[in-house]
Design goal:
single chain, 328 residues, mainly alpha, 0% strand
């Protein structure tokens, strides 16, 4: 996974809490739908022909609320129920696609988005979503050309540019990643998602001081998220300043989670100073229960996008198209 101290898991990252499982008829429809067997789903809770439009609107709202509450599997189930009845509704297809990724099923998202592309064409939203799905599935060789194709159609889209930076980082190409982030910042100056991803790229390439300075700029932005602050906390610990890391941790995290993270940060700080360290403690827990990107991104990320998977470990904020906050 793109990040500083995080195992490669594009859907969740090391510390992220488990997500709810798909429940009930909607969940079965989701599984059937991915196999192309949605015919029986209408009788399992999907809106029937002639159903009042207000019911469909209420179901859409329920899916959006589940997604906002990080209940991605439940959101995917609702979107599948709706999509099986409205297969020409691209927004429903995209809602299902991103929630499949958020809930840890990027391969299923890849299948779905390719089906959407066959029906609707190689549009920017679909190419961008497919690129993020490839990133989340660790298919970097497919992610980058897909994202570059999306960029060709929308060259000033900061979200696409930032996600291209994450894709380059995945490949260890930090110079091209830096160029992509610079273009994203021209398109969206001082954007905290881009700054977060740039900082993680700097840290991975060995510029810890530069990474910290970039994250400090990011957290000064009004739209900065908890994930960005917790990424900075981790880098401060790696720098050997556990007190600064602890202050940042306590801004966003419940006391028990912050206490656990702070023990971990003190261990990292001691190790960075070459001191003997105590037995390993649990790695930092998630700031919220969510997915990333990469950004991913995140997770995301993120490999998870920031919004997708706010975490206490360094996660790229793979920005969403309009739906997620990142690979959101």
């Amino acid at each position: 996974m793109h990040g500083v101290m995080q195992p490669k898991d594009p859907a969740a990252g090391s510390p992220i809490a488990a997500r709810p499982s798909i429940r009930g008829a909607a969940g079965w429809c989701l599984l059937l739908g991915l196999a192309g067997l949605t015919a029986g789903c209408a009788s399992m809770g999907a809106p029937k022909a002639g159903t009042d439009a207000s019911l469909v609107a209420a179901q859409r709202q329920a899916a959006e609320q589940d997604e906002a509450a990080y209940n991605y599997s439940d959101a995917a189930g609702i979107y599948q129920t709706l999509y099986s009845q409205h297969p020409d509704d691209l927004d429903l297809g995209l809602g299902l696609a991103r929630n499949l990724r958020f809930s840890g099923s990027p391969q299923n998202e890849i299948v779905l988005v390719n089906q959407l592309i066959a029906k609707h064409g190689r549009t920017v939203p679909l190419l961008f979503e497919l690129g993020k799905a490839y990133l989340a599935a660790d298919q970097d060789n497919l992610a980058l050309p897909t994202l570059l194709e999306a960029k060709g159609k929308d060259p000033k889209n900061w979200e696409i540019l930032s996600t291209i930076g994450v894709a380059y980082d995945y490949q260890g190409d930090y110079a091209d990643a830096r160029d992509a982030y610079a273009q994203a910042l021209i398109a969206s100056p001082s954007n905290p998602t881009v700054l977060n991803n740039l900082a993680l790229s700097q840290a991975q390439s060995g510029d810890l001081d530069g990474a910290i300075a970039t994250l400090q700029q990011a957290i000064d932005q009004p739209s900065a998220t908890a994930q960005t602050r917790q990424n900075l906390a981790l880098l401060m610990a790696l720098k050997g300043d556990p007190d600064a890391a602890e202050r940042l941790a306590r801004k966003d995290l419940p006391q028990d989670v912050a206490d656990n993270n702070n023990s971990y940060y003190r261990m990292l700080a001691s190790a960075s100073r070459g001191e003997a360290v105590a037995p390993a403690v649990t790695t930092p827990a998630a700031a919220t229960a969510a997915p990333v990107v990469p950004l991913p991104a995140s997770s995301t990320p993120a490999s998870v996008p920031i919004t997708a998977a706010p975490a206490a470990t360094a996660v790229p904020a793979v920005a969403p198209s309009t739906d997620d906050s990142p690979v959101r």
